[in-house]
Amino acid sequence: MPTALLVLFLLVVVFVVVMLSKTVKIVPQARAAVVERFGKYKATLPAGLNILVPFMDKLRYLIDLREQVVSFPPQPVITEDNLVVSIDTVIYFQVTDPVAATYEIANYIQAIEQLTMTTLRNIVGGMDLEETLTSRDSINSGLRGVLDEATGKWGIRVNRVELKGIDPPPSIKDSMEKQMRADREKRAVILTAEGQRQAAILTAEGSKQSQILNAEGDRESQILRAQADREASILRAQGEGQAIQTVFQAIHDGQPDQSLLAYQYLQMMPKIAEGSANKVWVIPSEITKALEGLGSSIHEIAGIPKDATPRTRVDMGPTEPQLPRSSGDNELSATSKAVQDAIAAAESASQTRATPVDPAPSEGTAGEPPTA
């Protein structure tokens, strides 16, 4: 008896568990359950705990209400210029009506795939290859409009359509690569030419500025060099003038006689005979008379004064070289010159009165005037 009761109890427990499983249904969040009663649509259960009538109500489909992503394999599509390209698409859709998605279409994913293929061939067939490669947005918009309109009655909303890849034939790829390489080389050549042009312009401008600066520098250096040469010539001329005056004054101060001058003539004779081309040379008559004057001081050489004392004292001039003064010192220089001329005239007059003037020699060398 206890065994029969135990079996009965176990049967009751199993029956209760089965009844609970048939009665209580838990639907997850973002899901929708389609319930049928005797094979006919009864209701759509929301998310959460739901109670069904056991053995009468049946949970047929559990629909995912979240946005879903489906990637379709590449499909060959012929463009307007008769080129076959391979295009793969990605569809983003969402079930908005679980009842329509369950009863209006048997397999909505397969239906969306086939509709995408046909629509894509229709859109791309009116474009050439270049337009296809550069018109992804227009293709996406056209696909989305057609799919959304067709899938509306299926309780599906197409949110987005994306072209994941457009692959032209290998030969077309090679041609496109060559064209792209040629375009890049063309741009590189253009940029190189522009760079060389700019470099040539900058080089020419730099050369121009350099030549201008060099010319200005040469002009200033020539001006300074000319001024230096002018001042050097003035100083050299003043120095030579003072040297001549100094020698002339020293000769007069030394009072040379006939013997000294004759000796000077003798010293000049070796210099006259110098040189390999001097085969024949003529002795001036003044040297002969000078030789005669060495033996006797009675005779005098024509053209040489007996008394070597100068009649007039030679002004030695300033000891320092005088450069031309600026225009601002004209008045002062004129006054100083007048004073110096007055002093020189007074000294000359006093020396003339102090020294008697010798008469000119009665005899002289033919062809030479008597020396003062």
From TrEMBL:
Record-linked Pfam families: Band_7
Region described as Disordered: 303-372
Record keywords: Membrane, Transmembrane, Transmembrane helix
Entries under CDD domains matching the protein: SPFH_paraslipin
Bias kind Polar residues: ranges: 324-338
Chain ranges of the Band domain: 22-180
Family that this chain belongs to: Belongs to the band 7/mec-2 family.
Protein name: SPFH/Band 7/PHB domain protein
Species classification: Bacteria, Bacillati, Actinomycetota, Actinomycetes, Propionibacteriales
